[in-house]
Amino acid sequence: MQADIGLIGLAVMGQNLVLNMADRGYTVAVFNRTPSKTDEFIEGPAKGKKILGSRDLKQFVAALKQPRRIMLMVKAGDPVDEFIEHLLPLLEKGDIIIDGGNSHFPDSQRRYESLKAKGILFIGAGISGGEEGARHGPSIMPGGNPDAWPHVKSIFQSIAAKSDDGSPCCEWVGEGGAGHYVKMVHNGIEYGDMQLICEAFDLLRKGVHLTYAELAKTFESWDKGPLNSYLIEITSQIFTKMDADGKPLLEKILDVAGQKGTGKWTGIDALDRGMPLTLIGEAVFARCLSSLKDERMKASAYYKAPDAVFKGTKNELTEQVSHALYASKIISYAQGFMLMRNASAEYKWNLNFGSIALMWRGGCIIRSKFLGNIKQAYDKNPQLPSLLMDHFFIEQITRCLPSWRKVVAEGALMGVPLPCFSTALAFFDGYRSPLLPANLLQAQRDFFGAHTYERTDKPRGQFFHTNWTGKGGDVSSSSYTV
Predict the structure, then answer these.
(1) What angle do CA 116, 266, 111 make, to 5 degrees?
(2) Annotated catalytic residue, options 171, 175, 190, 199
């Protein structure tokens, strides 16, 4: 019996993907660097299923149908390259290597180009949904060599989550590193969603002293409306979890956030592109600030919290926060799709944004009802420059705006940090402004560095320099954009 696909790396994600494939009728060959782990899996969760254990790579490759389809579920970085090097002598032209880990997209782009030159087809597949998604249906974002897609399409789409209309949350993204790029932006948006939810919790807890039972009920009700999402759902459940002593477990968890780098990658890429991805950037910095626990404890002794209190009712603040959360979420996704649009143009990926929204409807961590509205927006206008230009989102922002402004103001008055709510509102006000103070900024740059400026009464692309003091001369520096 030969296998339809092989998978290397039997940590929890790898094991669950294999079991998912086997449940859908595929025969899967597996290999792990540690043979005992392969044996434990074959004799344990895989027992009785069409899963073939291999103790060395030669045996593993020999067990695969041609063209061989090999999926790597190993730690991102050097381990991926090491396995590729070990596999290459055993493969033939037309065989397929799939990296399903959390790789950085430039690495996937490099691997795609290197393997293409050797006749090997490469796919970099972003996978979201955690261990539960891997077992029962993740969101899969494949990119790389398009010649490989027909050979893995049926497998990937059968194991992927399904949206409400039954469509698989998996579709071809684009060439090169496109799959892992879209997964990177997904993770950045995930950072933003999580931080926005944390800010909503913080303001409701400190502003009107909602109990954990009240918070759970509030988030449960939110999950039944426009804010419906996986993260809202699990947050309502977190509020109800009690520790062994009967007190809320959340109160025992140290307020120091971890991160694995994908949000940071998104922020760095946005800076490199000159794209204003402000909300995701603030979400990353909020995690960094949380890590300064000792300094924060010392600073709290020097600075007294404001005496201001919210003068309305619990219901009033709860409703205002729900509107601010929804509007800020729109900004986060609008920024993420603006970033992908910029990258798509540079790399000529021709990303289908409606399809991406559909891929995120199920299985992944940011899955939500809201993504259906994004798909509709791009279905109506595939060239939409920003979600903020779509009629549905214009209506939603307009509806939420008064509450959004009140929430940001109340947070500032009460001394409750709302970095993502605040930056989302600042971005919106900047985006909707026909005139920004960048004219003064350009005057300053020209004054001290002769960096030149454009004029409102001249065509775009013409640059001018002023001798502001009469002593600086008329020579300007060259114009360039970082």
Answers:
(1) 15
(2) 190
Would you give per-residue pLDDT tens digits along the chain (482 residues)? 899 999 999 999 999 999 999 999 999 999 999 999 999 999 999 999 999 999 999 999 999 999 999 999 999 999 999 999 999 999 999 999 999 999 999 999 999 999 999 999 999 999 998 888 999 999 999 999 999 999 999 999 999 999 888 899 999 999 999 999 999 999 999 999 999 999 999 999 999 999 999 999 999 999 999 999 999 999 999 999 999 999 999 999 999 998 777 889 999 999 999 999 999 999 999 999 999 999 999 999 999 999 888 989 999 999 999 999 999 999 999 999 999 999 999 999 999 999 999 999 888 888 888 899 999 999 999 999 999 999 999 999 999 999 999 999 999 999 999 999 999 999 999 999 999 999 999 999 999 999 999 999 999 999 999 999 888 676 666 655 55
Q: Which residues pair with 29 in a beta bridge?
A: 6, 52
Task: Tell me how crowded residue 85 is: count the other CB atoms within 10 A of its CB.
Answer: 9
Q: Which among 187, 84, 192 is positioned nearest to 144, based on CA atoms?
A: 84
Is residue 162 annotated as a catalytic residue, yes or no?
no
The answer to whether 115 and 84 are in contact (CB under 8 A) is: yes
Please list, in sequence order, all residues whose beta carbon lies within 8 angstroms of the beta carbon of residue 150, skipping any fewer than 6 positions away: none
- Tell me the C-alpha distance between 193 and 189, whole Å: 6
The CA-CA-CA angle for residues 180, 372, 361, to 5°, reads 45
Q: Is 190 a catalytic residue?
A: yes
Catalytic site residue from 37, 183, 329, 406: 183
